[in-house]
Amino acid sequence: MVRIPSNIQDLVSYKPGKPVAQIVQELGLKEWAVLWNNENNLGPSPKALSEIQSALALSHLYPDPSAEKLCSLIAQENDCTSANVTVDNGSESVFDCMLRAFFEPGDELLTCEGTFVAVYIWAKANNVHCEKIPLAAGYQFDIDQLIASVGPKTKAIYVANPNNPTGAMISRVELERLVHSVSKEVLVIVDEAYFEYAKALSEEYPDSFQMRRPNVITLRTFSKAHGIAGIRVGYALGPQPLIESIRKVRMTFAPSHLSQAAAVGAIQDVEHVQKTVEVNRKALSQYYGALENAGLSYTASFGNFVMVDLGSEEDAKQFVNAMLHKGVFIRHLRAFGLAHCVRISTGTVQENDLLARSLASL
Ligand SMILES: Cc1ncc(COP(=O)(O)O)c(C=O)c1O
Questions:
Q1: What is the DSSP string of 92-122?
Q2: What are phi and psi of 255, to 5 degrees?
Q3: CA–centroid distance, residue 91 to ligand 1 (Å)
Q4: Residue 153 CA: distances (Å) to CA of 85, 109, 184
Q5: What distances in angstroms separate CA 281 from CA 32, 36, 270, one per listed residue?
Q6: What's domain 46-269's architecture?
Q7: Cα 38 from Cα 35, distance rounded (Å)
Q8: Rounded Cα–Cα distance for residues 222 and 230 (Å)
Q9: Which atom of ligand 1 approaches the CA of 94 most closely?
Q10: What's the confidence (pLDDT) of residue 291?
Q11: How far is ligand 1, taken at its centre, from the CA of residue 339, in Å?
Q12: Which of 3, 40, 205, 329 gives the lowest tally of CB atoms within 10 Å of its CB?
């Protein structure tokens, strides 16, 4: 028998639920809203689609391994050079590369419970111990405890800002406190997957890359506000020596030729992002009102989703099921370690209305 390492034995491969079309058919739904994956339901950036069309004819060639056009556009947007940027098949892939690029046996990753579940999975897959401390009141990252918990084995701290699934934001003051309190030998990974949404929602939202610290890496993605989650492009911004180390372990030809083209289109589609964040802003206030009217408790969000606290796992499961029967597909947060909570993404105007009507008729 081939021996499977124990860290891999402990993991479970991703088991997708039933496809939406099947659920729609089984329940005989006349209308529905898919609000379980924090996607951009307004659809992909039209400029991304047109760039893919133009790039199709060169599909027989390997992509540009340095993704120079895309990296330089990202650099332009962030006031840096391409040497400060690396792209990959989604920011999850960049994170995986970081675990391989920076961690040696015995090094630990420090983060909180109740954050992006893939972080725990990729740490385990790479045999990196993930030290998790509880979230603070209001489902916030506990900055004081993170600072206090840094030990000799801590190689990196991971925070998501805003956090998925709680939606909570780390303010500029708090993030600066974290970054300035830890040794420059400790890497601080700031996952800003919902950057565009958060920036539009709060002036207190910090751009971690602009702190220009030698030990901070910022993760961003085209999966959310730009609407190309299915195309898989994410990136890291940071100091050149750290970015160069990530590049050393990434797949040579990632992202694909079509993915690079899509992201080149998406990043220039300011209109699509603006429309997206505006629909999201309205959706969040509509959600808050509908949740309050339904007597439900939620955490104010800086992303394209809201976390609702149902008080118990049983009530959370029942709520997910009741919403499913009304055609609203939402996420139970057991896998995130928050079994008493659910997460509802924002959608199109019609989908947001269905959510509000469904809450009103519970
Ligand atoms: C905090 C956070 N980081 C990263 C990702 C994944 O991004 P990508 O699609 O670029 O891998 C998500 C997706 O839900 C997320 O919530």
A1: HHHHHHHHHHH--TT-EEEEESSS-HHHHHH
A2: -70, 170
A3: 6
A4: 27, 8, 14
A5: 21, 18, 16
A6: 3-Layer(aba) Sandwich (3.40)
A7: 7
A8: 10
A9: 11
A10: 98
A11: 20
A12: 3
The whole model's pTM is what?
0.97
Q: Please list the residues that pair with 133 across neighbouring strands.
A: 112
Inter-residue contact 84 to 243 (CB < 8 Å): yes
User: Does the CB atom of residue 89 touch ligand 1 within 6 A?
Assistant: no
Mutation choice for ligand 1 from 115, 122, 164, 331, CB with most ligand atoms inside 8 A: 164
Report whether the peptide linkage leading into residue 165 is cis, meaning its omega lies within 30 degrees of zero: yes
What average pLDDT does the chain have? 97
State whether the beta carbon of 44 lies less than 6 angstroms from ligand 1: no
CATH code of the region 6-30+271-360: 3.90.1150.10
DSSP state of 203: T
Residues 205 and 172 sit within 8 Å (Cβ to Cβ): yes
Mapped onto helix, strand or coil, the DSSP state of residue 133 is strand
Residue 92 alpha carbon, nearest atom of ligand 1? 11
Q: Which pair of structure tokens corresponds to residue 272?
A: 């699509």
Confidence of residue 286 (pLDDT cuts 50, 70, 90): very high
Confidence of residue 15 (pLDDT cuts 50, 70, 90): confident
What spatial distance separates the first Cα and last Cα of the chain, rounded to whole Å? 53
Give me ligand 1 centre to Cα 3, in Å: 32
* Beta carbons of 301 and 281 less than 8 angstroms apart: no
DSSP 3-state of 209: helix
CA of 123 to the centre of ligand 1 (A): 15
What are the extents of the domains in the chain?
A: 6-30+271-360, 46-269
Distance from C-alpha of 336 to C-alpha of 166, rounded to nearest angstrom: 10
Q: What sign has the CA pseudo-torsion 209, 302, 134, 222?
A: negative
Question: What would the pLDDT profile of 321-331 be if each residue is shown by its tens digit?
Answer: 999 999 999 99
What is the best residue among 38, 89, 221 to mutate for testing ligand 1's pocket, by most ligand atoms within 8 Å of CB? 221
pLDDT at 158 over 90: yes
